[in-house]
Design goal:
Elements: H1 22-46, H2 52-64, H3 70-84, H4 89-102, H5 110-125, H6 132-142, H7 146-159
Helix pairs in contact: 1-2, 1-4, 1-5, 2-3, 2-4, 3-4, 4-5, 5-6
Length: about 170
């Protein structure tokens, strides 16, 4: 479970009574898509003909550009998660990362789901490399737009325990 019991109002859209502006919500979706795409090859190596995770990443970006409805993007996220379910290891986590990215338009806090699953995918793909997860986390942080950097880093610290402790230093 990657969603908290108590929501941070900074990650709830203004339309729903929170503080998150549309532009920052879109940046969160784009960052989540980047995180998921970084590990997508781990899924595609195992399931090369299944486009559901790639479609979900494309949907996250399309939603952020205003070219797709939130409901359509979220549905594609669900399809990507469906692609994950029968799998194990890195491929499964990579598909879940894509699914989470597509759901950011629905609930902004899915951004950390995409990032956390990408880290889990990297760890699973490189079980003998102790620093693999940390290197993936650091790469992800380097991809953050400065306008959302502090928000994401604070959220990582706050939700680290429910995100399998993948964000700890």
């Amino acid at each position: 479970m990657i969603l908290p019991d108590v929501r941070d109002p900074r990650l709830v859209t203004i339309r729903r009574g929170g503080l998150l502006r549309d532009a920052d919500h879109q940046l969160l979706a784009l960052w989540a898509a980047r995180c998921a795409e970084h590990v997508l090859h781990l899924f595609e190596a195992e399931e090369p003909s299944d486009t559901r995770p790639r479609d979900a990443i494309d949907a996250a970006r399309a939603w952020a550009r205003g070219e797709m409805t939130m409901m359509d993007a979220r549905a594609r996220g669900g399809h990507a998660m469906g692609a994950a379910r029968p799998l194990r290891g890195a491929a499964r986590f990579a598909a879940y990362a894509a699914g989470q990215a597509a759901c950011v338009g629905h609930v902004a806090e899915h951004d950390l789901g995409a990032a956390a699953y990408a880290i889990k995918a990297t760890r699973a793909a490189h079980p003998n490399e102790i620093d693999a997860g940390r290197l993936e986390r650091d790469w992800q942080r380097d991809q953050l737009d400065e306008r959302i950097r502090a928000l994401v880093l604070e959220d990582q610290a706050r939700r680290n325990a429910i995100c399998w402790s993948v964000f700890e230093d």
